[in-house]
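Weekly sync, protein design subgroup
Attendees: M.S., D.O., the rotation student, P.L. (late)

Item 1: inverse folding check
M.S. brought a backbone from last month's batch and wanted to see whether the design step gives back something sensible before we order anything. D.O. pointed out we never logged the input encoding, so this time it goes straight into the notes. Structure tokens as presented (810 positions):
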């Protein structure tokens, strides 16, 4: 995580980096010793001139023990400023800091710029090359504005609100040329969530201190974010950003890089790229693209860089791609060589580039890659000479004024009506949520705020958790602090948010860990320095440090990727009462081969064949056999006696797939405590709306997938005699099983209700279109001993829902 800047006046390249060191110690817990990793961070800079090597690191954050993020940098005319944000662990307040190198000899030392009781995050920095004045824009979370402050060498100015009081994110800024069209104004661009969609806005602050009007850069019904900004030599202001598509087919949906420029009077589009652009500024490849950067060189050519999560496995294999606009045409699509061919998994995370004297492209990036069955991180650097111009003369920028095609936005799911039930003499309400999603903090397609906004405003969920992977969060104190900060900031009485992460062991399988209370540390999957994977037992021992008392609980659910399975030798019901039966990957009720079973699979047949092969190879590993308690589906866990309730989580890596796989919970009230009570009582259902990450459908393969989906919001109640799902009663005689089903979508009633006993489908009832439907079955062949019962509900559309079991004589 860092930035690279080229100072054209001194011809010097500067790089700022977040440098993290991880150590591991063995700590005793009440159930035994466990490995605990601890990360310490600092913000460092290094520089070089021409073709020389970089000098040593200088710690610009020395003396600051906080959890740090966003080491932003600018360098002009021999002056350098590094800005970052950090959370102080003592008061849990976010602040923006800066360190300035202005006299050519020494740094000022870390200076507090903003924050505290008004949390300040995600700064951007720019230096006026003529005056040496520093400008910093940042997010003020007290009133959701973008604010601007400046430093003249003596002190920081009063902050100024640049944006309206909406929800505003990710500012970027430049100082325009004094002799140019904008006469040295400070230009600030940012993302704003208004009218329940994201757009890019721009505002100029003149040298006379006057603020110009807010300018809306984009108006698409799709979500735009991650802007970067530059000024060309003709005085045009260029903005590049990422646009999220409305495709729902993939785990990582299409994300596009678009660019346009402002000539002082109107917005123009550059001419389309011949190999895949369009007249609305699209220049990226047909894949998952984000984090764009834009730079102008001394010939007035505009270079746009972005991170490309390459098909067919974005962002597992990534590249840094770029194009150059040479006045009236784009170059071919090119990329920096990031040397990832030797690694099976290699994710480009954050990156930065510069175009130096001689038109060389230089870049730095973070990468995450699999090494010795663990994850490792490194920062790499490359010099790339193919940015040489075709012509040596200065170019003049041209464009076109075509209107923006607004297109169709993402569908909003209707708010479900309130459903109540009397259970054990008490009144309960039905809520829906998702606790397994990934942002670009780990390996997702969108920034974290996208997920909260989509879950709340589009999916209409009652509770939610972002659960980025441990291999980024646990190694970066600033990310860990941010992950714990966001739930409290987005939570409300109607939208309950939890802190979470995904434990991603290569040896033991993946688990999602959800905390009832925030500000809990993430357990590292990897034990450095040999990158050896931690175990599930180690995870449990780590979690015992937080106790099991009320109001401070930890929920663990096994996440099953394509029926690859999980190790359950160390299962602890005190943490793990539920199983993720549904996800965007697969329905994991039963083994994968039972879904295929000689039938032609629908959807993407090659994907089904590939996943089946992966599952088959996985099952051949002796350590991953059922006798060793490696279970590839929910029924295998239940058959072994593990009392796991049904749960649904999406595991989406794109915000717009939230809501299509959810869990239903019966709660006493809509609070975090009541939701955790319901989880541990297994008053839960797993709901699946047919959306698959690989265009595959594994429950009713004969059905044809439709393009559009309505999210399943079903009320499923299952009783055994008078015992509600999740309970563990003692039963001595033939029990009566009863299911009541109601779908909020009245056009999609229950088609079949399948009763399952001990892994066998013992009875199927056909409600004949009734909504609500009530069906029952008596187990006349009941014999004493331990048994489990539950129902699967197949809806007319192909949607599927699962009740939690009733566990008899457990």
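Designed sequence read out in the meeting:
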């Amino acid at each position: 995580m860092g930035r690279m800047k080229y100072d054209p006046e001194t011809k010097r390249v500067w790089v700022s980096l977040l440098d993290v060191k991880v150590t591991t110690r063995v700590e005793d817990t009440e159930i035994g010793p466990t490995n605990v990793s601890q990360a310490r961070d600092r913000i460092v800079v290094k520089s070089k001139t021409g073709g020389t090597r970089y000098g040593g690191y200088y710690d610009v954050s020395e003396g600051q023990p906080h959890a740090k993020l966003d080491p932003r940098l600018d360098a002009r005319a021999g002056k350098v400023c590094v800005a970052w944000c950090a959370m102080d662990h003592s008061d849990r307040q976010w602040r923006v800091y800066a360190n300035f190198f202005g006299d050519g000899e020494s740094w000022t030392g870390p200076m507090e710029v903003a924050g505290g009781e008004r949390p300040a995050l995600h700064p951007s920095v720019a230096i006026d090359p003529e005056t040496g004045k520093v400008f910093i824009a940042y997010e003020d979370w007290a009133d959701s504005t973008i604010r601007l402050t400046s430093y003249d060498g003596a002190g920081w100015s009063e902050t100024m609100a640049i944006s309206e009081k909406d929800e505003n994110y990710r500012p970027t800024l430049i100082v325009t040329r004094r002799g140019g069209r904008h006469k040295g104004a400070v230009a600030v661009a940012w993302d704003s969530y208004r009218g329940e969609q994201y757009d890019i806005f721009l505002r100029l602050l003149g040298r006379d201190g006057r603020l110009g009007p807010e300018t809306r850069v984009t108006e698409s019904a799709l979500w735009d974010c991650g802007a970067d900004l530059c000024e060309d030599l003709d005085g045009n202001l260029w903005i590049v950003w990422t646009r999220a598509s409305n495709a729902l087919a993939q785990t990582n949906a299409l994300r596009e890089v678009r660019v346009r420029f402002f000539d002082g009077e109107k917005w123009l589009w550059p001419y389309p790229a011949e190999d895949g652009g369009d007249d609305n500024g699209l220049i990226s490849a047909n894949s998952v693209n984000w984090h764009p950067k834009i730079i102008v060189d001394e010939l007035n050519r505009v270079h746009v860089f972005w991170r490309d999560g390459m098909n067919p496995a974005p962002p597992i294999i990534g590249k840094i791609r770029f194009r150059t606009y040479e006045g009236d045409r784009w170059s071919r699509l090119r990329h920096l060589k990031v040397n990832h061919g030797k690694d099976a998994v290699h994710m480009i995370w954050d990156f930065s580039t510069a175009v130096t004297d001689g038109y060389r492209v230089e870049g730095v990036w973070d990468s995450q890659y699999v090494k010795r069955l663990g994850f490792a991180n490194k920062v790499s650097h490359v010099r790339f000479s193919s940015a040489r111009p075709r012509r040596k003369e200065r170019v003049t920028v041209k464009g076109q004024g075509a209107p923006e095609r607004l297109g169709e936005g993402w569908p909003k799911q209707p708010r479900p009506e309130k459903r109540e039930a009397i259970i054990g003499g008490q009144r309960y309400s039905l809520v829906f949520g998702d606790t397994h999603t990934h942002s670009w903090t780990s390996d997702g397609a969108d920034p974290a705020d996208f997920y909260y906004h989509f879950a709340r405003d589009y999916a209409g969920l009652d509770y939610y958790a972002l659960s980025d992977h441990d291999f980024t969060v646990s190694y970066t104190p600033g990310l860990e602090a941010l992950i714990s900060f966001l739930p409290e900031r987005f939570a409300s009485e109607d939208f309950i948010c939890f802190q979470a992460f995904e434990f991603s062991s290569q040896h033991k399988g993946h688990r999602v860990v959800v905390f009832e209370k925030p500000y809990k540390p993430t357990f590292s999957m990897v034990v450095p320095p040999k990158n050896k994977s931690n175990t599930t037992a180690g995870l449990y021992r780590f979690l015992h440090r937080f106790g099991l008392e009320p109001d401070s609980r930890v929920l663990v659910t096994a996440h099953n990727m394509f029926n690859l399975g999980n190790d359950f030798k160390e299962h602890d019901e005190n943490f793990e009462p539920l199983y993720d039966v549904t996800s965007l990957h697969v329905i994991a009720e039963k083994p994968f081969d039972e879904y295929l079973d000689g039938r032609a699979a629908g959807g993407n047949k090659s994907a089904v064949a590939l996943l089946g092969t992966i599952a088959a190879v996985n099952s051949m590993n002796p350590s991953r056999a059922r006798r060793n308690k490696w279970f590839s589906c929910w029924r295998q866990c239940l058959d072994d006696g593990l009392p796991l309730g049904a749960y649904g989580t999406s595991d989406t890596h794109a915000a717009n797939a939230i809501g299509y796989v959810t869990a239903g919970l019966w709660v006493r009230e809509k609070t975090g405590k009541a939701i955790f009570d319901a989880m541990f009582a297994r008053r839960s259902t797993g709901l699946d709306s047919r959306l698959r990450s690989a265009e595959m459908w594994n429950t009713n393969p004969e059905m044809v997938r439709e393009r559009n989906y309505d999210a399943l919001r079903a009320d499923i109640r299952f009783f055994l005699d008078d015992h509600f799902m999740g309970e563990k009663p003692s039963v001595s005689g033939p029990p009566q099983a009863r299911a009541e089903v109601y779908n909020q979508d009245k056009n999609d009633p229950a088609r079949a209700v399948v009763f399952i006993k001990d892994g066998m489908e013992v009875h199927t009832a056909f409600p004949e279109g009734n909504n609500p439907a009530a069906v029952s079955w008596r187990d006349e062949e009941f014999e004493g001993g331990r048994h489990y019962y539950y129902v699967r509900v197949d809806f007319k559309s192909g949607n599927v829902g699962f009740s939690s079991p009733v566990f008899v004589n457990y």
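Discussion: Residues 369-379, 598-604, 694-707 have pLDDT under 50 and may be disordered. The helical segments are 448-458, 470-473, 477-490, 536-543, 592-596, 605-619, 634-639, 672-681.
Action: P.L. to compare against the previous round before Friday.
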